Amino acid sequence: MEYRPLGRTGVQLSPLCLGAMMFGPWGNNDVADSIRIIHRALDSGINFVDTADVYSGGASEEIVGKALEGRRDDVFLATKFFMPMNEDDQNQRGGSRRWIIREVENSLRRLNTDYIDLYQVHRPSPDTDVEETLGALTDLVRQGKVRYIGSSSYSGSQIVEAQWASRERNMERFVTEQPPYSILTRGIEEDVLPTVQRHGMGTLTYSPLAGGWLSGRWRKDSASRPASSSRPSARFDMTSPANQRKLDVVEELALLAEQFGLTLIELAIAFVINHPGVTSAIVGPRTMEQLESYLPAAQVGLSTEVLDRIDKLVAPGVTMNPDDNSYGAHELQPGARRR
Asked: Is 115 a catalytic residue?
């Protein structure tokens, strides 16, 4: 597996990152099986694991910690904070110094490690100064508890604001951004990817299969495609015209993949990691079978012909269903563009 530079940090990472969201009660509650999946990913050449405190209420971090016993130094380990860890306590969440200083200790304990390679803000906060968050994270880096810091689901303007604040206040800067990116969700090509490249950051994309849309399970005439009530939010409302168009595009993509001897999954993941601005695509298997279906994509190169045909189906910079951008930065929400 060929490794890639993480921005200008000097760190080299695999083009696939093992996402651990599905390890624990949210997905695979068999701890031993989850550990086997993690070990298989590492044995295949993946040297990058990403999780978050909120995944399965901390269980994902605990499973990752157990899996990395004896192998910790070989892995670039990333986790995230921000999401509520206690619904009854408004201060056990967010980007405040008070919460960051407390929660990093919880993550270190669950991960069974002395340091976190990459500590990321899971979402931007409209009511917390970025200097508040950066100041606390800077202290963690200087204490040796964190090596690098990053953001997730930030808009281009928020990325620039954070870089400016770091430079002006002599604080650690975000060296990565973690946005959603897939063939069906290309909005970051318009602003976020060029901004990240301009600032020499790494890009760690999540949801390359568009929340399962590009997994091959949901097809236009398939009985297995999700009913409107089976998944939350308008992103999976099958009565939506935008989602009906997505199903049409999935059919065309499946035919394109077959024509070039690929699975739809391989085409989808390869599309993401073939972008020069992408460092690594986060894949989040629940089973060993899923992991095995993702791994070949790391070796797939896409020709100009294939990329041009994808562009005809989904134009560069376009997210087919605007509801797919309705999380993360407030200004990315459709309603915020008009009032």
From this structure: no
